[in-house]
Design a protein that fits this description.
Blueprint lengths: L2 H4 L10 E2 L2 E2 L4 E5 L8 E5 L17 H9 L4 E5 L5 H8 L2 H4 L2 H10 L1 H10 L2 H4 L6 H5 L10 E3 L4 E3 L14 H17 L18 E7 L2 E7 L7 E2 L2 H10 L1 H7 L4
Helix pairs in contact: 3-6, 5-6, 9-11
Length: 256
């Protein structure tokens, strides 16, 4: 911090928490010239201050500096979050003029009182939007409807309802058949002769033996970190699975 930056904090009162202590009654008089983050400020006469001297501090006001040197008062180091709360409350009264959404989102992420103040200015949806364009781009209830294919017990069917809004509707027949094959494959892979209860851990360095689509054919490979749905605990089990379920795999990979 430098002298110019300190000006906006000088004379402000302390507030908020430091550890488990509720700060109160302090006034900002100095700063640490070497500190960058978190910004440290020296407060005088806070109820949780002590009388010990602290070095590496700049106190611009001569009277405050004199008192500091004489050790007459209690002092405590605080961060900028402990002194700007009152200013934030004033700002919140005119949210659209002084508080940008970006600033409010930063407060929201800090939690505590900052989060509460952000929520008093913006909604939860504005501060923490769900990144999903489904409602806005695909289905706007009352205006847009979905055509496509849906899953039955053992087959797929063309959607005929002109006012369909079911999000489980697939755009094409092949995609729907692929999803049906996916469900069947999950059950087959869990059989004792294949993976059983084994689940690939993609965070370790062990090889996993996978089934992939390469161009227009089914192929096999092995990876340790790159996730693949069709992963098996051994090469032999993977190859056996391909041999016994080739047609289902072709449907899953949308191969004719």
């Amino acid at each position: 911090m430098n002298a110019k930056d300190f000006e906006k904090y000088a004379g402000k009162n302390t507030k908020g928490k430091k550890g488990n202590d509720n700060l109160s009654g302090g006034k900002i008089i100095g700063y640490d010239p070497k500190d960058v983050h978190p910004l440290q400020l020296l407060a005088i006469d806070d109820i949780h201050g002590d009388g010990g001297k602290m070095f590496e501090v700049i106190i611009p006001d001569k009277m405050d500096l004199k008192d500091w040197l004489c050790g007459k008062h209690k002092y405590i180091w605080v961060t900028i979050e402990n002194v700007i709360m009152d200013e934030l409350n004033k700002v919140m009264e005119t949210r659209n003029v002084k508080v940008t959404l970006e600033t409010a989102q930063r407060w929201y992420g800090q939690g505590g009182e900052f989060k509460e103040m952000a929520l008093s200015a913006y909604t939860e949806a504005e501060l923490n939007p769900i990144k999903n364009e489904w409602e806005s781009k695909v289905i706007d209830y009352g205006n847009k409807f979905i055509s496509g294919w849906y899953l039955g017990d053992d087959s797929v069917y063309k959607e005929t309802n002109e006012e369909n809004t079911d999000r489980s509707t697939f755009r094409t027949e092949k995609q729907a058949k692929s999803a049906l094959a996916y469900a069947q494959l999950t059950q087959l892979m869990a059989l004792p002769e294949y993976n059983g209860d084994w689940v690939a851990d993609w965070s370790d360095d062990d090889d996993k033996f996978v089934i992939i689509r390469y161009c227009d054919k089914i192929d096999s490979d092995y990876y340790s970190k790159t996730h693949h749905f069709l992963a098996f605990k051994s090469e032999e089990i993977r190859d056996k699975f391909i041999e016994n379920n080739l047609d289902l795999l072709k449907e899953y990979f949308e191969l004719d």
